[in-house]
User: What shape does this take?
Amino acid sequence: MGFNVNAKCIDCGNKFNISKGDGFFFHLLRCQLCGETKSIGFDELGELRLQYLKGLSGPTSIPSMEYDKHIQQNAQVEPISEDKYHKGVEAFAGKCKCGGNFVFNSFIRCPECRSIRIEEGGITMMYD
Assistant: This one.
């Protein structure tokens, strides 16, 4: 489950919201250069997602439990590791308009000055 938090840039004072974490049915990637986020739905990933699920020993979440179990028992695909899956998702996400890559583990950046010196506040919303 992901969430949004209030944030403030230590360098320029800009106040903004940050989205952090995946949902039950999507990944949230962040550009490594500018900090822009991109949502990738599991349904967009096709066989890559099936290969990942096939390699797991259990479900990824309660809402997807039955689907995950069905894939693990019935999909005729070769399982892949989490590392290979993450690399595949990042490749699928493509380039950001700034030229950077969307990745799973990138610094959060101020949308005004691109600083990574961010002060986080309270959670404003949780999402799935």
Remarks:
- Residues 30 and 37 are 4 Å apart (CA to CA).
- The radius of gyration is 17 Å.
